[in-house]
Amino acid sequence: MKTPGLATAEILVPRQGVDLETWSVIACDQYTSQPDYWQQARDQVGRSASSLHLVLPEMDLDKLETAKVTIGEMTQKYLADGTLVPLGRGAVYVRRHLPTGVREGLVTAIDLEAYDYSPDTPLPIRATEGTVAERLPARAAIRALAEVECPHILMLFDDASDSVFAPLRQGLPELYSLELMLGGGRLEGYFADEDKLAQVDENLAKCVRTDAAGNQMSFAVGDGNHSLAAALSYWRSLKSTLTAAQQADHPARYALVELINLHCPAVGFEPIHRLCLNGDAGAALKAVLERQGIAYTVVAAGADVPFTIYPEGVGIDCPGWKEWPLGKAQSLCDEALTGMEVDYIHGEQALIDLSRNGATGVLLGAPPRSGLFDLVLGGGVCPKKTFSLGEADEKRFYLECRKIIE
């Protein structure tokens, strides 16, 4: 491959006859404060074959020990009974129909040896947010027991010319077309063989950026940073038990991701809001602004401001906030909520609905996407949970899989 870190994969998909609307469920790190969503998903899935049986929603991490056994058993079952079948080496070109338009993506593999989540890494695949090490062991433990991975990682590349996916936009055989459950929109998938993937590789290589030290950067993690970091953690622990020859092409060395263009008009670039479960978020935020000497005024809700407080529904405006570096608003908010019980919420209405009965929410203003690659190239990362690629129901739904154990 000409693009640093890009790899090919033997992709698995559900066999013909599996109900894909039941099979495909949303990323496990969504709706963490909305158990009703996951209950509806479980009710819809029932006993049907589903990727829901291969993942653990993050809201259920307290059930990890039981889930590890179940996930291991279900992956073995789906491989043994032919529920999952191989496509051959290649990639899947996907088209996700969303309210914002059609988001194009390419499901393919990346080499974990080309990735690190340290802010100062010289490697070509880099994190965009701070990684919380405490969140990795649970995900790595699941990966260690599962024979297949179901990825929800969205990986960004920087293609202002919109040329990378041009070879894929016609003539590919359709794999699937379905309506995703619970308002997820429509998803189409098309198989791209290794010849087509080579053409995409040519175009991607032209998008590779170079940092001040001369190091190349191909991709930045958009969604699923901790999932990818857990895959790296598992690979590093396994690598030490392998010979050099085994390390060279072991399936766990790679991770399946969906590549998307940061400049695609349908790619939302949304803030991730804060829900404080046991304190007054508004008062705490004002105190931090005053302590740091940042001027603010309280305005009516609905104004274009960096912070809106719920359930009060009032805005906090700070002159010049549009010029703040990416992640500053989130950093101020996190400082204010230090020591409190906080959840991270995707979507304005979800935050409003949850900001009651003692909980208070901070709705954050939209961050500028234009600075993302420059920030990462300069050796920086955003504070954790700075941005999200779209609202919760626009996240990646599981469908494709890949074996990670020989």
Helix count, per DSSP? 11
Tell me the total number of β-strands: 23
Radius of gyration: 21 Å
Q: Are there runs of 5+ residues with pLDDT below 50, and where?
A: none
What can you tell me about this protein's structure?
The chain is of the alpha+beta class and 406 residues long. The chain has two domains: 6-268 and 391-403, no CATH class; 271-366, Conserved hypothetical protein from pyrococcus furiosus pfu- 392566-001, domain 2. Helix content is 26%, strand content 26%. The protein has eleven helices and 23 strands. Strands 1, 2, 3, 4, 5, 6, 8, 9, 10, 13 and 14 form an eleven-stranded mixed beta sheet that branches. Strands 17-19-18-21-16-20 form a six-stranded antiparallel beta sheet. Strands 7-23 form a two-stranded antiparallel ribbon. Strand 11 (209-210) and strand 12 form a beta hairpin. Helix 8 packs across helix 9. It is globular. The mean pLDDT is 94.
